[in-house]
Amino acid sequence: MTPLDPTPDPLLADPLVLYGETFASRLLLGTSRYPSPSILQAAVQRARPAMLTASLRRQNLGSTATPNRFWQLLADLAVPVLPNTAGCHSVAELITTAHMAREVFATDWIKLELIGDDYTLQPDTLNMVAAASQLIHDGFKVLPYCTDDLVLCQRLVDVGCQALMPWAAPIGTGKGPINPYALKTLRARLKVPMIVDAGLGLPSHAAQVMEWGFDGVLLNTAVALANDPVRMAGAFAAATLAGRDAFLAGTMTEKDAAEPSTPVLGMPFWHQA
């Protein structure tokens, strides 16, 4: 028997493309709340993410006595860093933070985070478009963390955002997609790459949104606070790939009535009675 040809690596055959740049993985990982730097390092090595998010506020900019160990860890991992503007409450604060992050991390990539409510950490949907427009004017590749509001997302695309990061649920809740209708509508109406960010708690959540046609997922808490973050990082990486494969394969149409999967053609008459 002739052996089957080896299956091509799906990560190489189906890359994630953002702002004209390609990434082998469709999983992005956050870098906070891990039990230790060594566990963070092992989780990243297990998941092989496209990018690592990091906040400028994690950097000890005022210290010159010792090198920043966190920054050195990120550099050693050799994974592209996506700085974010976490903790910003105004457009002016966000713009300043983004420019500082560009200097510290030496990258034009920025994850736009603008807090509108301190309790839910819901993004400020009223001022986000103006912030994104200014950052794009300043030469940033902007990935806005936003809600699943279709009109907001369309406005962000209109001002030049080539990718979006809608939430599945409020950040850190682990509830999974709480409004499937809104997310599916968003995916159907907008053609830019979209990475589901925030609220995913289980690998099955990641697989689900990938099955709906989303282009990637961004995780932090679900991995960092797992009993075994390294194993969970691998589980999310596998689930993300499985969901993408399912979307590309095309899932069956859901039906209300049972339908036999085994054909009865040619079976004895008494089996068909």
From TrEMBL:
Chain positions recorded as 1-deoxy-D-xylulose 5-phosphate binding sites: G172, A198, G199, N220, T221
Primary location recorded for the protein, binned into one broad class: cytoplasm
One GO term of the biological process aspect: thiamine diphosphate biosynthetic process
Matching SUPFAM superfamilies: ThiG-like (SSF110399)
Gene Ontology CC annotation, any one: cytoplasm
Gene Ontology terms, MF aspect: thiazole synthase activity
Coiled-coil residue spans: none
Cited CDD domains: ThiG
Pathway involvement of the protein, from the record: Cofactor biosynthesis; thiamine diphosphate biosynthesis
InterPro entries per UniProt: Aldolase_TIM, Thiazole_synthase_ThiG, ThiG
Active-site residues, record numbering mapped to chain: K111 (schiff-base intermediate with dxp)
Cellular localization per UniProt: Cytoplasm
Keywords, in A-Z order: Cytoplasm, Schiff base, Thiamine biosynthesis, Transferase
Domain Thiazole synthase ThiG: 18-263
Class of this enzyme: transferase
Reactions the enzyme catalyzes: [ThiS sulfur-carrier protein]-C-terminal-Gly-aminoethanethioate + 2-iminoacetate + 1-deoxy-D-xylulose 5-phosphate = [ThiS sulfur-carrier protein]-C-terminal Gly-Gly + 2-[(2R,5Z)-2-carboxy-4-methylthiazol-5(2H)-ylidene]ethyl phosphate + 2 H2O + H(+)
Gene3D superfamilies associated with the record: Aldolase class I
Record bears the keyword Cytoplasm: yes
UniProt EC number: 2.8.1.10
UniProt family annotation: Belongs to the ThiG family.
Role: Catalyzes the rearrangement of 1-deoxy-D-xylulose 5-phosphate (DXP) to produce the thiazole phosphate moiety of thiamine. Sulfur is provided by the thiocarboxylate moiety of the carrier protein ThiS. In vitro, sulfur can be provided by H(2)S.
UniProt xrefs under HAMAP family: ThiG (MF_00443)
Self-association and partners: Homotetramer. Forms heterodimers with either ThiH or ThiS.
Entry protein name: Thiazole synthase
Organism expressing this protein natively: Rhodoferax ferrireducens
Organism lineage: Bacteria, Pseudomonadati, Pseudomonadota, Betaproteobacteria, Burkholderiales
